[in-house]
Amino acid sequence: MLPFWIALQFLSSLPIRLPGMPEPSALGRSLLFYPLVGVLFGVLLMALNSVLGGVPLMLHAALLLTAWVLLSGGLHLDGLADSADAWLGGFGDRERTLSIMKDPRSGPIAVVTLVLVLLLKFTAILALIESHDSVALLLAPVIGRSAMLGLFLTTPYVRAGGLGQALADHLPRRDARIVLLLSAVACVLLAGWAGLIAVMVAAGCFFYLRLLMLRRLGGTTGDTAGALLELLEVAVLLAFAITL
């Protein structure tokens, strides 16, 4: 179960402590457990959603969104902010884009992007609460983290020597395809037609964002992987909210 604990430590703010640096093979296998971490997030969010029943709707949605952000420690939002800054400030240049991503400072475009993404997430959650449809709280984290697995499976990692490179190099590719297929099937079985629509919307967004990464960078980075996760979570929530 070491790969699962690696995945949980990397993707969450939960107090997980590993006994030293894992072997590269364990790092690669940890990607297979990303959807399972999404399941854990979703179960916790659904449980909180039940506990908050009766709380005023706006506060209910705000608390759910806060818990969602805290569970990941804002890791993927940071990647989204860095990617937004780099995409605008890079002026289409690969090396300039990669350089800006390394800058810890956030410019106006990063702030605007985060505000818009969180606003869309909040309003979608509010719509789901009003309709008493909580399954999206499970599917969005699962699909978002499955997308990260899919990205590392299909897309070159462009920062040589980093943690992401170890993940990509040691990912069991056949097992990854099986995990992705099982995750998609599970989403459809859990949510029916709404689940199928969510998977299709997420797949469309995935291929479009992946294409943008390939055109600009020739692959992915940790920041663009985090941005992908955040944007797909929003896409799934909106798909559910719109089809209610």
**Number of helical elements:** 11
**N-C termini distance:** 38 Å
Strand-pairing-aware structural class: mainly alpha
Reported for the largest beta sheet, the result is: none
Proportion of strand residues: under 5%
Oligomer: single chain
Rg calc? 17 Å
Low-pLDDT residue intervals, each spanning 5 or more residues? none
- Helix percent band: over 70%
Count of folded domains = 1
Strand elements, count = 0
The residue-averaged pLDDT reads 94
Q: Sum up the overall morphology in one term.
A: globular
| Helix/strand order, N-terminal first | HHHHHHHHHHH
Report a brief summary of the structure.
This protein has 244 residues and is mainly α. The chain contains eleven helices and no strands.
